[in-house]
Specification:
This protein is mostly helical. It has 3 helices and no strands. The longest helix has 44 residues. The protein starts with a helix and ends with a helix.
């Protein structure tokens, strides 16, 4: 593998955010709609992560309460929901990201077929 290909793959891995570059055939309104959806998707992922961290902190806090042994089950439940929230958030993020990429490339192929 050549050095330029390796460098390109490394830069692609480090890049967060935009996966596609618009071309002249995509009108501005559609490009902006894709960008808004992408940003909303990232915001939703961060919201899932935030909720997961709150549940994690709550579970750890419940474990620290020594005088209430029944809170141990609530702590375990909180930790389990924390993991579930995180997994669901990452899954939904990747699903919508793939869908956006597919939708964008499908519209690009339709434009090429019209020409």
């Amino acid at each position: 593998m050549s050095k330029s290909k390796l460098q390109f793959k490394k830069m692609k891995l480090l890049r967060f955010g935009r996966d596609f570059e618009p071309d002249e055939k995509v009108i501005l309104r559609d490009y902006l709609a894709i960008e808004r959806t992408r940003l909303a998707n990232e915001r939703t992922l961060l919201s899932y992560i935030r909720s997961s961290l709150y549940l994690l902190l709550g579970g750890i806090g419940f474990f620290q309460l020594k005088g209430f042994p029944n809170f141990k089950y609530l702590a375990l439940l909180s930790l389990a929901f924390s993991v579930i929230f995180f997994v669901i958030g990452v899954y939904r993020f990747t699903l919508l990201k793939k869908s956006l990429k597919h939708l964008y490339y499908m519209s690009e192929e339709k434009d090429n077929q019209k020409d």
